């Protein structure tokens, strides 16, 4: 039996407002000391990988409002092929985000972690990790209840 998306399965954030509040608190905490533009790239990349249309819609719009170029947003799914379009810090954060989004049998590869640890202070690295973990949680919640993007 297949399920056709006609809307959310149930309004999880209305049914469980504590969940929404906790996720918002985690999102706010994770965003501290991370450049907003970098944060949006992290959120978009994880959301692409997790196929979360709701989050992709939200974070691509937010990124554009912050001045992230259309080109960066357009090629983000293939950032490793984009030459120097992305900064070293962005590349380190994106590689770490991808590793955290699809954890293999051995977790985050040592080389990915080492590049990120060189690109960020310990505080920043913790925040980047927290941001990737947080957007993955949002993506999984929205996937479970099939939250569609709002119609514009």
Supply the helix-strand structural class. mainly alpha
Total number of helices:
8
* Total beta strands: 0
Relevant CATH superfamily: AhpD-like
Main sheet properties:
none
Descriptive overview:
The protein has 152 residues and is mainly α. It has eight helices and no strands. It has one domain: AhpD-like (Up-down Bundle). The chain has helices spanning 12-15, 17-31, 36-50, 53-65, 70-75, 88-101, 110-119, 122-145. The mean pLDDT is 93.
Compact overview of the structure:
This is 4-carboxymuconolactone decarboxylase. GO terms for molecular function: peroxiredoxin activity. This protein has 152 residues and is mainly α.
Write the layout of secondary structure elements.
Layout: H1 12-15, H2 17-31, H3 36-50, H4 53-65, H5 70-75, H6 88-101, H7 110-119, H8 122-145
Helix pairs in contact: 2-8, 3-4, 3-6, 3-8, 6-7, 6-8
GO molecular function, one term: peroxiredoxin activity
Domain Carboxymuconolactone decarboxylase-like: 17-98
InterPro entries: AhpD-like (IPR029032), AhpD_core (IPR004675), CMD-like (IPR003779)
Top keywords for this entry?
CMD-like, mainly alpha, 66% helix, peroxiredoxin activity, single chain, 0% strand, AhpD-like, 152 residues
């Amino acid at each position: 039996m297949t399920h056709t998306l006609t809307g959310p399965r149930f309004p999880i954030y209305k049914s469980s407002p504590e969940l929404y509040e906790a996720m918002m608190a985690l999102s706010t905490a994770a965003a501290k000391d991370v450049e907003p533009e970098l944060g949006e790239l992290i959120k978009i990349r994880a959301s692409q990988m997790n196929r979360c249309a709701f989050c992709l819609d939200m974070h691509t719009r937010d990124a554009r409002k912050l001045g992230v170029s259309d080109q960066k947003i357009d090629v983000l799914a293939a950032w490793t092929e984009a030459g120097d379009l992305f900064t070293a810090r962005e590349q380190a954060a994106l590689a770490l985000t991808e590793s955290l989004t699809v954890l293999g049998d051995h977790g985050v590869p040592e080389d990915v972690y080492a590049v990120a640890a060189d690109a960020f202070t310990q505080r920043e690295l913790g925040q980047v990790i927290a941001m990737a973990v947080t957007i993955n949680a949002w993506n999984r919640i929205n996937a479970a209840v099939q939250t569609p993007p709002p119609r514009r």
